[in-house]
Amino acid sequence: MLLFLQRLIYNYVVVTLNLQHLICSLYRKLEDLSVDEFLQTGLDSGGDEDSGDEGSGDEDSGDEQPKQNGVQKKEAGKTTDTDDVDKKKGKAHQHKDQLSRLKNKDPEFYRFLQDNDQSLLNFDDTDSSEDEDEKKYHTLPTALEDASSGEEDAEATKPSDATKQAKKDETIKVTEKMIKDWRSAIKKDPTPRLLREVTQAFKAAVATTKGEGGGQCRYKVADSSVFNALVLFCIKDMYGVLQKMLNLKPDKDSKKLVLPSSSPRWQKNHLDIKMYLGGLVQLLSCLTESSVISAVLRHTNQMVPYYLSLPKQCRSLIKQLLKQWSTGEETGRVLAFLALNKVCRHKQDAYLSSILKQMYISYVQNCKFTSPLQLPMINFMQRTMAEMYSLDTQVTYEHGFLYIRQLAIHLRNAMTMKKKDTYQSVYNWQFVHCLFLWCRVLGTLHPSDVLQPLIYPLCQVIIGTIKLVPTARYFPLRLHCCRALTLLSSSTNTFVPVLPFLSEVLLKVDFNKKPGRMSKKPINFAVILKLNNVNLIEKAYKDGLIDQLYDLILEFFHSQACSIGFPELALPTIIQLKAFLKECKVANYCKPVRQLLEKVQENSGHITALRQKASFGVADTAAVAQWEKKQSEDGTPLTKYYSQWAKLREREIQLEISGKERMEDLDLPELKRRKLSEKKAEDKRAFGDLFDSDDSDEDEEMLKIKNKKRYGSDDDDDDDDDDLDLSDMSDEGLDGDDSDGSGGEDDEEEEEQGAKASKAPEQLATSTLEELAGGADDLVEDLELSGDEDD
């Protein structure tokens, strides 16, 4: 109990001492005030009265004012002196004086403190807290310094600092000799100093591509040849230099990537590497030449491990790679995709989802318009995105579910609202190409238990798109959707009823109706979604429609050619094709349909014959699958025909994409028609001798006829012979005309050429023939002589 009371008393003493210390400090703050400050506060009533007296004194006599001011100044000087002494004294010293006075006032309590706690009495009277408080506030100097003298002193004492700053402001111009020296030195012994010089020079070179002066770089690149040499040096040698400097060795497992941040030398060099990687991305964003972009992308692909060690630089690199993948040239697209794939394979958790999202957005933006030149690019983007989605099926399911649901929402709005704008949100190239993308993704990643649930909703969205506006104007879009369904069905081994949508086209279009207009060029169904009213009456529309139906029906039957139920599957289509052939009267349309019908019936008969030899039942699914697998390996008549047809069709499509005609490269013989004048000259050269002899004989005969006419001789008995001779001469005349090039073939050419026909040689007139017939007597004698000879 006694100890408890002593402890209580001890605590009470400590509290009272602390209170005294606080009160003393507050009191000291009042004492620190000067006279002017104290009078301004108005805390003391006496001060107020003095101020009032001073005011009355001022009114009474203005002469005493200077005296009073002088007295106040003296008093203020005294108080400030005492204040300075007290401040020097310190609060701790004052507290020690109070404790010493406590010894006289209360000796018993003082002895109690000596017995129980000597630390309260014996402490250092140097108050550090006071010094700290004084340091918080700025104290005015006693004397003002001269500014000019201070500057002169600074210049005099620090001449080296100015020279150093001037040296920093000076930039070094990079030359080709410096680049050669750097290359030789850094290959022998790569040091951090050399790396810093090269990276700073590279930064200065990259800064010139955007019109900047190089910023705070030490170096300056002003010549294009120096710029090319420096960039070429960095692209070729920088990767090997960094690998050697960081002492990085490739892992035995090639699939595992060795990050440069694992090297013990990384911390010492990572700032220079960071500068170089940032300059490389900036250079990639400024280039326009495809060959240079390809070279930089190859180097960037090497530097991917360094980018993975620096997240900020990696994000900027991904942005540029996506830009090159979506808008660059063909080689640049491939290299950018390889770099993106490398980043995602080694940092899936950090970058895969965001990269897939950006790739999908870029794909949709590039699919807004479709042309023969853009189709290869769109197909490339589809295949590369399918490759990226294959890295993680769980992420693929999340993205696929989200984007297929968006397509379904657009379709639902169009079906419910039934307005032109809502129809347009579905019937556009972006919507169609998105359907193709997910068909390709699901087909590429099949079989996958994670993605299997997405097949059915995607099929429903495509079928709903076909049924939205089932008119003839949107038959091209229907054909695109049927092609997507065929791709999904064949790649996922899922049966999708595509044939009814194709057979419906045959029934709706009247192929017997004569076209209302002839078109010069065929319609390319691969790059159109709808037709206008003029296209619907053209002959090219029906020709192209037959070709497209032939291709799609053949592709679908090829995907089911080895199925054990092929005969039952093909039966409705066979009936519809026969009905079409019965109604259609145009041979050009009946010929491909008849050929397709024959191939389908042949394959159906082949499957039926093989099926009859099977010893298992329909319920045995394992045996059925094994049987279909064997048939796919052996082949069927339809699969063999399709393989040959596909090669020819692929060649035709490539020619269409390149803008050439289909029959251009088939090496058919050329039919060149000779001009009329050339044919005449050639005939004369070939048969010149023959016709010259005939002409001489004719001349002799003409002389004989004329001589006989002078003497006059008529024999009625020889009229028949004259007629025969006349016919012979007319034949000779025709032969002579033929020799001049005016035969039957020439008559056809004359009719085609029109105006050129007037230039052809004329035949003998009737009057000339009558004159020739006048000398029949002489000719009879000749004939009689010839007849005697014959006898």
Q: What does it look like?
A:
This protein is mainly alpha-helical and 791 residues long. The chain has 37 helices and two strands. Strands 1-2 form a two-stranded parallel ribbon. Helix 10 packs parallel to helix 12 (224-246). Residues 42-89, 127-136, 144-159, 162-168, 660-668, 690-699, 708-761 and 776-791 have low confidence and may be disordered. This is Nucleolar complex protein 2 homolog. One of its GO terms (cellular component) is Noc2p-Noc3p complex. It comes from Gadus morhua.
Top keywords for this entry?
disordered C terminus, two-stranded parallel ribbon, 37 helices, 791 residues, mainly alpha, 2 strands
Could you outline the blueprint of secondary structure elements for this entry?
Layout lengths: L1 H30 L3 H7 L3 H16 L4 H25 L1 H15 L1 H10 L11 H9 L10 H11 L1 H11 L2 E2 L2 H13 L3 H16 L11 E2 L3 H23 L19 H21 L3 H13 L1 H6 L1 H17 L2 H17 L1 H19 L8 H15 L3 H25 L2 H7 L2 H16 L10 H14 L6 H18 L6 H10 L24 H4 L2 H21 L6 H18 L3 H26 L8 H14 L2 H21 L18 H11 L1 H24 L7 H21 L4 H10 L12 H8 L2 H15 L1
Parallel strand pairs: 1-2
Family: Belongs to the NOC2 family.
InterPro entries: ARM-type_fold (IPR016024), Noc2 (IPR005343)
GO molecular function, one term: histone binding
